[in-house]
Amino acid sequence: MGMRSAATVIIFVGFCFIPGALSIRNSSCPRICTPHGFGDPVCGTDGYIYPNICELKKKTCGKGVNLSPDPDLCHRHSGSKCEHKCGNEKDPVCGTDGRTYLNRCMLQVEICRLDIALSHVGPCNNISAHRENCPVDCKQAPQDGPVCGSDGNVYKNTCQMKLLTCGQGVVRTNKKYCQTTRHCRESCWRNARPACGSDGKLYTNVCRMKSKNCGKHVFEVPMAYCVTQERTSHSIGCPVSCQNEIEKPTCGSDGFIYKSECELKLLNCGSNRRVSRVDFDKCRNKLSKCLKIKCNNDFDPVCGTDARTYTNNCQLSLATCLKGIQFAHIGNCTALKDQEPCPSDCDNETGEEPVCGSDGNAYRSNCHMRKETCGQLVIQVDSHHCRTTALCNEKCSDDRNFVCGSDNKIYRSECEMKRDNCGKHIYVVPMKRCISGFLFKGCSKICPTYYDPVCGTDNKTYSNTCFLDIENCRSRSLVNMKNMGTCAEPINEIPKNYLY
């Protein structure tokens, strides 16, 4: 009897330590990861590359794998095998090797293997940018827009994109890469939290507001600006501004903390949002939690859905915690009622530099921005917020890391290439495009710097096939390729992660 009890205990202890028991699915693990969102590919502590943080948590649920604090863990120079767990999502991107990859994750694997980089989102343009055929006008063009271009700008249709960016090699990309098209195809839940748009219209919720205004700069503003459209007179007397109000923290029945009772009414006007003031003790836990957010005073203003300008994103995050304020747009908030007259002609604007708009688009000048976005409350913001103006004012280092631009010019670095082409879609292409016009004598050749080792028949490892070709030329065809990979670690076949 005593022996049987002991055996039972041993079996029970053994059962508790079965490895499989530790990997039982945690309730916090995501079951579904949508193709859109969740960010860029990430490196796990297991050394694998995952499409995004959601896929990492989903595929490693209960296995103790986390986001690697050192992203270089998934790079070849750290001993990585460049293994990956990429999906088959079709979201083409172009690498600096001139090849198109199925998605960002597949490119990340090649970045690990060859140390290349992302050239631009969207497929590579096989025709030299300066030789592409451009439309003369778009009067008869199909209205297939709005279109998100690889330069980060939104266009009315494909024809307009080609017309305005002629010779820049701009291609059509996934709508998620542009600010005003990001929510175009989003499936909206039947959430009955009404939202007031900057166009003065009342929407069922924020999601419907954004999806119905695909390609337009429409953002959420305080409910007080839309209550006049309601059928009932329940909301008469709603405050439009609380600037002169004395700040007195107020706890709302929705669990949020407002600066004053005026602000509570401003953000919750109308018969659909009945929020009242309650005893502040009910909000003390919320206050202690939010005050743990510590922010600096770095100046990069953003506008919140309360029509207030915040110093930076962190300050907005604090407001989100306290009273549920969301991001409206980058830059300072604009006057919602008083709008400046729109210019009708910008042909005489000379000397103006490209500007970045709060809608995420880059424009030829401030005048062009006001003309093309008339009535959409778009303002000029810091240049780093737009893709083609991000490096306009950058101070580039003197390091020489020569690149070939899509305009077939050689630049000292990618930074200088983008700075010198402020507002234009100039991207990195394979160096051979820029040196094809040069004439080399004998076995002279300029080779790319990426590391994709091959082993020669002389049992020496070469950085890539280009260097092997030079040796083959010098030795008069005595040295050929023995195998891919290093001589110590040969591989059977060439990895192919690209489409074409």
From TrEMBL:
Pfam families (alphabetical): Kazal_1, Kazal_2
Domain Kazal-like positions: 28-74, 81-124, 133-178, 183-226, 237-283, 289-333, 341-386, 391-434, 442-487
Nucleotide-binding recorded as keyword: no
SMART domains with a match to the protein in the record: KAZAL (SM00280)
Record's keyword terms, sorted: Disulfide bond, Signal
Keyword Disulfide bond: yes
GO cellular component assignments: extracellular region
InterPro entries linked: Kazal_dom, Kazal_dom_sf, Prot_Inhib_GrowthFact_Antg
A GO BP annotation: cell differentiation
Residues spanning the signal sequence: 1-23
Protein name in UniProt: Kazal-like domain-containing protein
Organism the protein comes from: Brassicogethes aeneus
